Amino acid sequence: MYLYPSVLKGIVPKGKDKKDSTEIVRKYINNWIRETLLLQQAEKNLADEKKNFEKMVEDYRKSLITYEYESELVKQKLDTLVSDDEIQKYYEENKSNFELKDNIIKVIYVKVRKNAPKVDKVKEWYRSDVQKDKDALANYCYQYADNFFLDDNNWLLFEDVLKEIPMKLYDKEAFLQNNRHLETQDSTHYYFVNIKGFMTKNSISPLSFEKENIKNIILNKRKVELIKKMREDIYNEGVKNKTFEF
Length: 246
Description:
alpha+beta
């Protein structure tokens, strides 16, 4: 095998001096020699069947073309609207598949600096179920809190909430069973947590927590069915038009 000077054209960036240019070309040639020697050694020692890549390349080409076609079909034909009734039905029929692997909670959470104003009011508001107190807490958080979560209608992983708090719990399930409010601090911040609801791991996960997951499951099933039908239609069309024969 030969490395011709024409191959070396363009490998040296413009503006390089003679010394740098020579070094770049030398490294390129040295790497080419190493790779070529390795290839020759492999060619010499591999059995012929191990060196026949034509079928592998052709199979890969076929799979790429098929994948692109199926992807375009899914983009154009897949019905992506999933109703709440469909999600509810799937959940009811497959509840055993939705066992919680982690503890989840509904929570009000506020992190505020120690020098922030009206911290004593935050201690009242975050525990309250009165709407005016909730509104006051929301207004306060948008102005002064460094971090907060006030949507107690949505479930969160308890582990994710604990990452925000400077406190280690060794029996998380016991803590959830026996506590509704948590107040702690570090050198710069106060942390306030109001646990509005919880479910421990190994119980059945609530529908609201699994809704997006179920939607994706339904869409994936539709996708599989759409591709399966497309393949069957193409086969049947081929039979009808006699585009192949045994």
